[in-house]
Amino acid sequence: MESLDITDVRAPIDYGSLGKKVARLEEAITFFGDLSGFTSYVASLSTEDEKKEALRLLHVLRSEMQAVVADYDGDFIQFQGDRVQALLYEARTSGRFKSKAVETAAALCSAVDLAKELFPALSTLDVSCGADVGKVLVGRVGLRDDKEVTVLGRSIPCASELQDGAGDGHTAISVRLWEGIEKSLQGFFSLKKERYVADVDLERIEAEEAAKAYDSGGRVVVGGTLSDGLRVTPAATGGIRPARSWGE
Is the pTM of this model over 0.85? Predict the structure, then answer.
């Protein structure tokens, strides 16, 4: 048996080059996001047309889940039915990979909420997320052109267990991950049975940032559009000074 070439990651992983080569990450986030209620929704269907529509909606949801992972600089690993597995690490996210894992979970919650508004058939769905941090090995196994990405490490089963116990609409992360995220995000979580749990979506995070920007009395930048929503953030340089405090 030929030996594997294990290399430390210094740049975003090129998954096409993996095979005999194995990427070693000293610290990475394993992330799981699961659509809760989808299996029950499918089981309730009786006609072929309803089942075809359910399959179409699953593809829509999975595409959105994969897009959210990419939006927050995560690497999509695989789908496990209606659950997505992703990997976030420093070489990809410029040092914010721990906080971006939480933002990914919040964005997934917001995306599912929007899907429920657009597709009434999905009204009973929700999403639960789990994440843990630790050393992992990333490789590809299989035959020639039929190789799948594999991620090995103690954080994988831990992240899976956190997601399983998170509850609908909630995100659960390990204590060691909570300790590494930004303080503005830590405040959304509560410690429950040796894990931190939050009920948070992207709108809550953005509202908190906007409130702090106004209350600080400093200068702010207003971004976004009227159709997509405006976002207020503190300005290191330039910007404008709010005329009134938040909530007045």
Answer: no
What the block records as the tokens of 232 is: 């207020």
Mind giving me the DSSP string for 21-69?
A: EEEEEEEEEEEEEEEETHHHHHHT--SHHHHHHHHHHHHHHHHHHHHHH
| Amino acid of residue 46 | S
CA distances from 164 to 103, 161, 168 (A): 19, 5, 10
Residue 246 has pLDDT above 50, yes or no: no
First-last CA distance in the chain:
70
| Contact between 68 and 104 (Cβ < 8 Å) | yes
Chain mean position to CA 123 = 21
- CB 40: neighbour CB atoms within 10 A? 10
Q: Residue 149 has which token pair?
A: 């990405």
What single string gives the DSSP state of each residue in 125-177? -EEEEEEEEEEEEEEEEEETTEEEEEEESTHHHHHHHHHHTS-TT-EEE-HHH
CA distances from 42 to 20, 52, 55, 189 (A): 40, 10, 9, 32
Whether the pLDDT of residue 51 is over 80: the answer is yes
